[in-house]
Design goal:
Radius of gyration: 38 Å
Helix content: 55-70%
Largest sheet: 5 strands, mixed
Strand content: 5-15%
Distance between the termini: 67 Å
Shape: elongated
CATH class of one domain: Mainly Alpha
Structural class: alpha+beta
């Protein structure tokens, strides 16, 4: 990007730099006409904004409820205080959630940076110089020793004639929104993972307890059958069958204990607390199979609540804005700058005092030849736009597929359990 120079006047010039009134009037008229012409030309130029064209069904095929379930603390319907505490800890302490939060923080900072380019920049400057020629006194009359000091304010501003900066700000805003939705999606996945592993852990614990009770009964049965065989009341086949039943019950326990340990370790990672591995889990005695009815709502409503789909749509908005930003690279850029302050001057040791200085400048820059760079920038932006569109459409159909599959699985499980 061209940079506007707002350097101070040469040391031998103090006071306000001015032009004759007629020259200034002519210059301002030309500049105004040029700016107006460029604005009119650019107002008629635009780049295509693309949107997903996925046809949505009116209802989910396997849905039994059409109303929309509110996106609330859905895990609380199980009325398990321990589960609720684990989910909340995961949402607060999970490292993936924290990483997503830092990405959101960076995206919001980038949004602030992009917005700042739309406004003038103001800076302060202090400078000084000391030039000694070493000539004799007669020569120094024409080539004097000089000392200068200056203090001033520098103002620079790019007038966004082509909309390039506004498009960049819009892209950064969409990036921040995408990061926010992504963080929500990560948090939702983490909380769902906690709930899933918790129920796996609780279910495995209950199965282990049941199998241990069955194993104890089978061992007692084996003892009784063995005793009956010794007095001739049972056959060897009866003893072998009792031994098989006892061994079968005991053999089912280790895999379930492994499942308990794996689920416990996973929850410890999700809540970022390794001490959870040594804690005794005492879940609620309620029926964890009493699953409330799923209410996905209409497909269009679902897409407005899925963080992953919303993130993809925001990324598409960012790609659309960057396509506009790339197209603006073909057009001129207008920079304005000014410096104001006071400057002191000393010639051959004689202090001439301080005076105000003003320096106003403008720069109009337009690409003429850059070896195809601008064309390549536009091609890359167009490709990124098409990729974002395909990702958004793919995300939409995958989201619908996920819900349909989940509803079918839930219906099958309800029929299997007889609920």
């Amino acid at each position: 990007m061209p940079r506007l120079s707002t350097t101070h006047p040469l040391p031998c010039h103090t006071g306000r730099t001015t032009l004759p009134r007629t020259e200034r009037a002519t210059g301002f008229a030309i500049a105004a006409a040029l700016v107006t012409s460029i604005s009119l030309v650019l107002s008629g130029c635009s780049t295509p904004v693309v949107k997903p064209s996925v046809e949505l069904p009116s209802n989910f095929a396997a849905s039994t409820a059409s109303e929309m379930e509110p996106e609330a603390a859905w895990w609380e319907v199980y009325h398990d205080p321990l589960l609720t505490d684990l989910v909340r800890r995961a949402a607060r302490e999970n490292r993936d959630v924290k990483i997503a939060a830092e990405r959101l923080r960076a995206a919001r900072a980038g949004e602030t940076v992009s917005q700042s380019w739309l406004l003038p920049s103001v800076g302060a400057s202090v400078s000084g110089s000391n030039r000694s020629t070493g000539y004799n006194s007669a020569t120094k009359q024409g080539y004097p020793d000089t000392k200068t000091t200056s203090v001033g304010l520098d103002v620079s501003w790019e007038l966004d004639l082509s909309g390039r900066l506004r498009a960049g700000a819009a892209a950064a805003d969409a990036d921040a929104l995408a990061a926010e939705h992504s963080m929500r999606g990560v948090r939702l996945l983490v909380m769902s993972d906690v709930v899933s592993n918790y129920f796996t852990l609780v279910g495995a614990q209950r199965q282990v307890a049941t199998l241990r009770a069955i194993s104890a009964m089978q061992d007692e049965t084996l003892r009784l059958v063995t005793a009956r065989q010794q007095v001739g009341l049972a056959s060897a086949f009866d003893v072998e069958r009792a031994q098989t039943d006892a061994l079968s019950a005991r053999a089912q326990i280790p895999p379930l204990e492994t499942q308990v340990a794996v689920s416990r370790h996973r929850i410890a990672v999700l809540i970022a607390d390794q001490s959870f591995n040594t804690k005794n889990i005492q879940p609620s005695t309620g029926d964890v199979t009493d699953v409330p009815e799923a209410k996905p709502g209409q497909p269009a409503e679902l897409l407005q609540r899925r963080p992953d789909v919303l993130a993809l749509m925001a990324q598409l908005d960012a790609a659309n804005a960057r396509r506009q930003q790339a197209a603006a690279e073909w057009f001129p850029q207008l920079f304005l700058g000014a410096s104001f302050g006071r400057q002191g001057l000393s010639l051959n040791g004689a202090d001439l005092g301080a005076a105000r200085f003003t320096n106003v400048a403008g720069l109009l820059a337009m690409p003429l030849f850059n070896a195809g760079r601008t064309q390549a920038i536009n091609e890359a932006a167009e490709s990124a736009q098409k990729e974002a569109l395909l990702r958004a459409e793919d995300g939409i159909v995958r989201a619908l597929e996920d819900v349909e599959n989940a509803l079918v699985t839930l219906a099958q499980e309800r029929r299997r359990s007889g609920s």
